Amino acid sequence: MTIPSLPDLHAIGASQQPTYLDRAAVDAAVAELGARPPLVFAGECDDLKARIADVAQGRAFLLQAGDCAETFDSVTAVNIRNSLRVQLSMAVVLQYAAQVPVVKVGRIAGQYAKPRSNDDETREGVTLPSYRGDAVNRLAFTPEGRAHDPHRLVEVYNLSAATLNLVRAFVQGGFADLRTVHSWNSDFVRNSRVEARYEALSAEIERALAFMVTCGVSDDALKVVHYYASHEALLLEYEHALARIDSRTGQPYGTSGHMLWIGERTRQIDGAHVELLSRLRNPIGIKVGPSVAASDLRALVEKLDPDNEPGRLTLITRLGAKKVRDALPAIIETVQATGRTPAWVCDPMHGNTFATDNGYKTRAFPVIWDEVDGFFDVHRELGTWPGGVHLELTGNDVTECVGGVGELAEADLAHRYETACDPRLNRNQGLELAFYLAERLNE
Ligand code: PEP
Ligand code: MN
């Protein structure tokens, strides 16, 4: 398998690409990226693929979560720690409930490029290019801010490396110790008005941990977790520059992250994104919205997974709470008819976004939950495994989604609305979702 050249990919045609004016600067950025070491190793991608194969077979559950859009300014120790903290906390609750390993994958260390519905944005009569993520331009609504700057690709690489470095240190250095993680959950249950049944679950986990300790279980399995990085593989220049041949196997891998996914807007069967990812050996996610045609879905899974390889595909459905119960069965049946068993994952975020009267893009916790609930109902009905969730989430106490334990109202959104793109669940909303999920996993 070879990696197609960048000009060949551009000749195929790709949607959602930046319009760079300075070709020499693009070439320089691509050359610099091409000379840098990989961010992840192919062997790690294979490990993740094996874990996702377990998800597909109903032997594990996937928690994929993180920012909608990472920003350069958000790369701080506090943000990374808080994000990991909430994800690991949720994973403990889910793992206890499901009694299967939870595969932890962040939308992290590379999630800097955003597809947009409109190329331009108009404010008070002024029209400028839309914000496409810090990998492309800046949020600031000025002509300089919104100009597409190829040097930012190098910054993405550097900040992804810094993020991964801290993440690796955290998950191996004792931060992820199961007992510490569980004590964060106990705090949540104590300090929030969650229902008594969550207290019971939390207390049960506490007893299980205490029992293990009295048995003398104190090995590394309690202290070290496996955590992987993922992002949408959107920018051809960046992903191509980090596509490398693995020296062990001679196979091409994307080394910008362990798992790469193709977004709802870039999954054209004859487009460059599908072409590039079809050549890389990483585990691949495909976002699937309600308008997908059965013939496209069939062609996509066949092109991206020609060998029916375990763990290769994760289908991330984002159908909306109103449509999930009607649309999901046909999607599952279409894929099953190809003979493939992908990991099925629910993204309850992207089909449920709306604008409030006071001008915020938000999502409502009960509606997010309704889509997850519908996802479980359909999979239980069809006898397939509801393999995981894909969430936009932060470890900080932001006010971007309404509802949940804190009963955030639309009027509260102004308080801490910090996302550069889509609204994220805050820490308490994330944990609450984990406790809800625990009940469905426990059925
Ligand atoms: C996203 O995951 O942030 C995103 C843009 O999703 P989708 O491609 O499903 O719209
Ligand atoms: Mn998003």
TrEMBL record:
The record's section on Pfam families has: DAHP_synth_2
Q: Which GO terms fall under molecular function for this chain's record?
A: 3-deoxy-7-phosphoheptulonate synthase activity
Give the pathway listed in the UniProt entry for this protein: Metabolic intermediate biosynthesis; chorismate biosynthesis; chorismate from D-erythrose 4-phosphate and phosphoenolpyruvate: step 1/7
Q: Which reaction(s) does the protein catalyse, per the Swiss-Prot or TrEMBL entry? A: D-erythrose 4-phosphate + phosphoenolpyruvate + H2O = 7-phospho-2-dehydro-3-deoxy-D-arabino-heptonate + phosphate
- On whether Transferase is a keyword of this UniProt record, the answer is yes
Q: NCBIfam families, from UniProt?
A: DAHP_synth_II
Q: What is this protein called?
A: Phospho-2-dehydro-3-deoxyheptonate aldolase
